[in-house]
From TrEMBL:
Residues 1-20 form the signal peptide. It comes from Hypothenemus hampei (Coffee berry borer). GO terms for biological process: chitin catabolic process. Belongs to the glycosyl hydrolase 18 family. The keyword Protease does not apply. This is GH18 domain-containing protein. Pfam families: Glyco_hydro_18 (PF00704). It comes from the Eukaryota. PROSITE patterns: GH18_1, GH18_2.
């Protein structure tokens, strides 16, 4: 059975939403946190499970990730981690609401490994879209989640260059929203920040209509996929970026373009990264921006991914590091031998929080719990990067959104 409303009813629903109260009170902000479920398998001090989550730090927590089948139904990617006959991760995560009655728990669909092509195929087919809507509602009801985070990050990009992805994605969100409204479910999406990708992937006007929250991924502008060094969370471009035709390849231009394209700032969550992108320099004496690299940086002991280090790994491995702060891009990096490490510290996160508040954005998205120093082993208490968000909010008279 299709979960669709007649046009008149649909119009009435959205009219009611638009005439209702704003998504958050003026002095309330969202802190939307992602839980990477595979971190339960990390070794030693890097192991992160539901019990490591401090539920007072977030207004929303999203479980990552659910997958999608070819027929549009949901695919639980790691049943052992999630289901009652294994580690029972779903139930334990939802139970965090007992510790914070304002907390909302969502399931996130997609992610890097799910790619783009499967989503492109499903959203192009009305029957498969209906399958997805019904499968999502069944899942949310079964496990007690409060909504869905749609993390198809690449409409019309990556392994699908179908230009119809953009419109079909909007149709998919519309059908989910229609089904969610009477059930009180939340609908959010993770979206790309880069200005050049917005028009390719998104109908911003429709996303603004259908989504409760838009989690803007303000990171991964550079990485081991380049053949040179570059910071992945640069707030502004510097003169050297212009030389390499990257003058608009930065967070500020992306955020401003989302706003100019019609996205309600109150729905936008500014993405904060607690991990670094790293490179191996060809010549360690040449360690500025756009210097040649031989490849990704050395994997860390916990994340174990070449080209990536968690903040917790950086502070443990290099406790005496000296940050090099770029006063134009407003981000730090550190050079250790032939390793170039671009990350965010307390100073740069504070600058980003002020930036988002000055733009009247609705809040912040954090990717992710497990690469902050959640153990407090580095001496600045638990979750030092996440707490910068809270400290800044308090200093400026904001509180967390009460759901």
């Amino acid at each position: 059975m299709k979960v669709l409303l007649p046009l008149v009813a649909l119009t009435a629903v959205f009219l009611a939403i638009s005439q209702g109260s704003p998504i958050s009170a003026e002095n309330e902000k969202v802190v939307y946190c992602y839980f990477e479920s595979w971190t339960v398998y990390r070794p030693g001090n890097g192991k992160f499970d539901v019990e490591n989550i401090d539920p007072s730090l977030c207004t929303h927590v999203a479980f990552t990730f659910l997958g999608i089948n070819a027929d549009g139904t949901l695919n639980i990617l790691d049943p052992w981690e999630s289901n009652p006959d294994g580690l029972n991760g779903f139930e334990r995560l939802v139970n965090l609401k007992k510790e914070n009655s304002n907390l909302k728990i969502l399931a996130s669909l997609g992610g890097w490994n799910e790619g783009s092509l499967k989503f492109s195929t499903v959203v192009a087919d009305s029957a498969k879209r209906t399958n997805l809507v019904n499968s999502v509602i069944s899942f949310l009801n079964q496990y007690g989640f409060d909504g869905l985070d749609f993390d198809w990050e690449y409409p019309s990009r990556r392994d699908s260059e179908n230009p119809e992805d953009k419109d079909n994605f909007s149709k998919m969100l519309e059908e989910l929203k229609v089904a969610f409204i009477p059930r009180g479910f939340i609908l959010s999406a993770a979206v790309n920040c880069a200005k050049v990708n917005v028009d390719i992937s998104y109908n911003v006007t429709l996303l603004n209509e259908y989504l409760d929250y838009v989690n803007v991924m303000c990171y991964d502008f550079h990485g081991e996929f380049d053949n040179y060094t570059g910071h992945h969370t640069l707030l502004y471009s510097s003169p050297i970026d212009t030389e390499f035709n990257n003058s608009e390849w930065n967070i500020d231009d992306g955020i401003k373009y989302w706003l100019a394209s019609g996205m309600d700032p109150a729905k936008m969550n500014f993405g904060i990264a607690t991990y670094a992108r790293t490179f191996t320099l060809v010549d360690s004496t040449k360690s500025g921006l756009y210097e040649k690299i031989s490849g990704a940086g050395i994997p860390g002991p916990y994340t174990r991914i070449a080209g990536v280090l968690g903040y917790n790994e950086i502070c443990e491995l290099y406790p005496n590091r000296t940050d090099i702060f770029d006063d134009v891009q407003m981000v730090p990096h550190v050079v250790i031998g032939n390793q170039w490490i671009g990350y965010d510290n307390e100073q740069s996160i504070g600058i980003k929080v002020d930036y988002a508040l000055n733009k009247s954005l609705g809040g912040f998205m954090l990717w992710s719990f497990d690469t902050d120093d959640f153990t407090g082993l580095c001496g600045d208490g638990t979750y030092p990067l996440t707490r910068i968000i809270h400290d800044k909010l308090a200093q400026r008279g904001f509180t967390l959104k009460k759901n």
